[in-house]
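We emphasize that the prediction below concerns an isolated chain of 166 residues; any contacts that depend on oligomerization or on bound cofactors are therefore not represented. The input was used exactly as deposited, without trimming of termini.
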Amino acid sequence: MPGGPWRRPGLLAMICFALVYALLQGLHLALRDSAGHAVLIDTMTVAPAAALVELFFAQDEVVADGPRLRWPQGSLSLSTGCDGLEVITLYVAALFAAPVDARRAAWALVGGVLMLWALNQLRVLMLYGAYRHARDSFDDLHTFWGPLLLIVPAIVLFRFLLRGGR
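Result of the prediction step, given as a token string:
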């Protein structure tokens, strides 16, 4: 075939997506045993989540304690995966592979990552609420509804980007 497989934009997009995703996930996994993990979990996930929990459940006296939300009667540990980076890395890799101009992609990158981070904080708040006050719903929220809270908006935002903001 003239030009070979590299003349196919779909194939290039898939390769770009796979390479960027592999790079980002590799970096994320490499952080597990480093100080970067504490930044991702303790500083960027647990600390803001504790402040958010305090707004809605002040009576629980929740504080951030490293990778845990701690209250007088117990704690909830957050670990890799609780930071929302699985969905964020998929979203970022999709942006790098998307056929859009750099300016729009940059806005989508910054806005999308901030939106997904904020939604992840909401997800952690909901998981805390379920764990403390509706334990029977925790597993469904943790494994099904919580991930959808990040996945669906990421897809919608990406589709919005591909349609030129329409």
